[in-house]
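Handout, page 2. Input:
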Amino acid sequence: RQRQMCIRDRKEKAALEKQLKAAKELINDLKKQDQTSFLENETDYVQSGGAYLSKLLKEHHLQPGNLIRDLELERSYAYQILRGTRKPTRILLLRIGFYLQLSLSEFQRMLSICQRAILYPRNRFDAAIIYALEHNMSIDDLNDLLEEIGEPPLR
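Output:
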């Protein structure tokens, strides 16, 4: 048992060191930029969740109306999210990610920018979502899978 704790502690330490290294690299990048290139770059660490979601819609050649209709969202709520006046729930972000057919890394980036927990493979619900992403499953197939394992569907 003590050995298992030691191994887990080493893994956690390695993960923290990796995060610290990434943060240091980001800080160094910021230090190297001048103000004009920083503002022109429109980097993700400056963007709000709503601005990022709007950017994703444009990249996928979609209008907000398509998203509202296809995901059956309340119109005013959706526009508040896209304007950045309201934060989307994690479940809504997951639905949007499947709707846009994002990759796992794009999903993680979207969740992070929108200040929601990224997908964690040790969580059964998140593991099912990761599995569905890796196997190009539709949201309906994912909902069936979630119901099979006793987790709430993305509706």
